[in-house]
Amino acid sequence: MSQISTWKERLQTQMADDLAHEIDIFEGQMELRKQGKLDEKVFAETRLRRGVYGQRYDNGQRHDGAQTQTLAYPSSDIVKGPDTLWDAPGMMRIKIPFGGLTAVQLDVMAQLAEEYADDILHVTTRQDIQLHFVHIEDTPDLMRRLAAVGITTLEACGNSVRNVTACPLAGVCHTETFDVTPYSKALAYYLLGHDDVQDFGRKVKIAFSGCEHEACALVKMHDVGFLARVKEHDGELKRGFDIYVGGGLGTVPHQARLLAEFVSEEEIFPVSQAVARVFARHGEKRNRNRARLKFLVAQVGIEEFRRLVAEERETLPYDPRWTAYLDDLPNYSETPARPPIRLEDFSASEEYKNWQRTNVYWQRQPGYATVTVNLPLGDLSSEQAFQLADIAREYVGDNLRTTVEQNIVLRWVAEADLPALYEALTAVNLGAPGAGTIVDITSCPGTDTCKLGIASSRGLAGELRTRLAAQNATLPQAVKDLRIKISGCFNSCGQHHVADIGFFGNSRRRNNRTVPHFQVVLGGKWQENAGSYGLAVGAVPSKKVPEVLDAITSRYVVERERSENFQEWIGRLGKKEVRDMLTPFTEIPLYEADKTFYSDWGDPREFGIGDMGVGECAGEVITLFSFEIAKAEGILFDALLALDDADYALADERAYQAMILAARALVRNQFLDVGDNPADIVNEFRQRFYDTQLFYDRYAKGKFARYLFARHENPNPGLDLDSVRQLVEEANLFIEACHACDARLAGALAGGVSL
């Protein structure tokens, strides 16, 4: 009887070699962690960098009443013995560069949501897809199934370059300078796993925008933002980008500063690399609260930061990939599934007209439109995802994109197909109007699954959306045009700073009881690529927020001057008047008088913040050595597995590779540009650590280094059990010696000893 094949065996030929290898390494590290042989903090960072994320574990209820479950990913009690597995669920974040999806990819993620998660695909404000309640034991197979259709979770979390975002209308927009899609995609994959993005103190977020005055990809609130430009040179128009740095939201938002005007398309890769190296060298590592790029730019000033980047750029070793991607630009295109047939007059229902007004964007290409599938709270059930993939195949092929407003767009819809598409979407409950209006509320996960969540952002968003949708027919256009964004805490994952009306969760005490509140943030600017940030004007009880929203919007409609927008009206009103407007809503009734104030939206339990934990958004600050040596240990574990399978050639190769990576981990403490050529690594290791005797300890006297040299210079010709087992043991000793060397060097530096 034949054995059932594993996903690894079934998909081996369908995965890119580099992605498959990364997943194998992670699986080995998981096993080492379960055996107590890999430090918890190092494992936490390595799983985060592969998108495996802890989530809230308060055994409470989600906003929709579904029961949450206990989580063990971040616990120090993960490993209690060699046979103990952790089986509580967490979150898997899936990177979708520029939001681009194919129908097959959507199908696969629907399968994964159905088989491994809670049947929900969640679209994030970074165009990612998240699956919640995923067991860590399932993550390698989940990663392999994604890799088989060209998707990775690598560096979706942790201290890394996160998903590179771009405007979902790029390439079809009327006002864009040029299509930024191929540039965003190319940079995303250039930086993925790059040596120069492994030593950050916190995450780095990058965005591309084709339009200066629209919202697009909100480049001015990013660590690094690219704004498309063209410039005449020798009678020809040359493409390039204005590059912004140091933007970010969080507790105290920072507006990005202009690093350089018109950086040519040939230079955006090396300049990005130089920015990364400056951040790695000079950014904060110990204090996570000050470890974002925005703090470094603010600390040294944009002029000095510009100088540091220019200096770093001059010393960068040449990389042919900087310009190789340009050869593919002329070949980049999207293929519509249907010809551009114009929409003839037909008897449209009011429902269809409402949907077309808000959810249909007429592309610059005649005969085509982009349709927004409006997803409440960014959620799509697995069944709906399967159905949407089928709809896409029929009407748009593989032209789908996720958006930063937590929706999905279908591009290249033939105008004549719009009525039929609307009917198809409505039949699967995906035909709701209101995209891009006040009804289309953005929300972070809040207390549903985030350990930092204070108040139920999704619960509030769901309540407001329901109320606003019911009023949609009677809402004035000025109100419909407003944006609402909600965060469960002050970290602004829901982007409340750039909304017309934003809310973020906090709490207050009343008679020794905790009451959920939301801070009201008014006057943020979504346009001009997040042109300005709103200000917090006061906290109100969570249950009063709908009344507060009614008061603000009603007064705006009555008092606004002709063509005055919301930001201008708030500015004219003044902070004092705004605060006075909110004051009547701040009163908290006694518990005995109204108990509903003491529970949050969608959760009947009495409110409390005792379940909050330490957020995993950035993970622990792990040294570059610790992170890279963990890879070596994972590969050495692969060697042990191969030895057990009597695959001596593979065991020999893995043991040697583990030693090479361990040596490289030490070398990169001194020389970042060592590369991945084994001969170069061994040479640098010999000169920097063996010849200088830095690798020597009082007992071995450099003996373990000679294991590396011997295997490097004389590949094992025998490949029998004894010789390969000896090499595996030597590799283990060498890795341990690298650990000891790093510890000695760190101790000497801490003690002020010159080395």
Alpha carbon gap, first and last residue: 63 Å
For the biggest sheet, the summary is:
5 strands, antiparallel
Any idea what the CATH superfamily of the largest domain is called?
A: Sulfite Reductase Hemoprotein, domain 1
Radius of gyration: 27 Å
Helix count, DSSP H or I runs of 4 or more residues: 24
Task: Report strand %.
Answer: 5-15%
Shape: globular
Helix content: 25-40%
How many domains would you count in the coordinates?
Answer: 5
CATH topology of the largest domain: Sulfite Reductase Hemoprotein, domain 1
- The CATH architecture of the largest domain is 2-Layer Sandwich
Average per-residue pLDDT, rounded, comes to 88
Keywords, please?
755 residues, alpha+beta, Sulfite Reductase Hemoprotein, domain 1, Alpha-Beta Plaits, 5 domains, 5-stranded antiparallel β-sheet, 20 strands, globular
Notes on the structure:
With 755 residues, the chain is α+β, with helices and mostly antiparallel strands. The protein folds into five domains: 7-147, no CATH class; 165-329, Sulfite Reductase Hemoprotein, domain 1 (2-Layer Sandwich), CATH 3.30.413.10; 350-427, Alpha-Beta Plaits (2-Layer Sandwich); 442-598, Sulfite Reductase Hemoprotein, domain 1; 624-750, Up-down Bundle (Four Helix Bundle (Hemerythrin (Met), subunit A)), CATH 1.20.120. It has 24 helices and 20 strands. Strands 1-2-5-4-13 form a five-stranded antiparallel beta sheet. Helix 21 runs parallel beside helix 24. The chain is globular. It starts with 6 loop residues before the first helix and ends in a 5-residue tail after the last helix. Mean pLDDT is 88; it is low at 59-85.
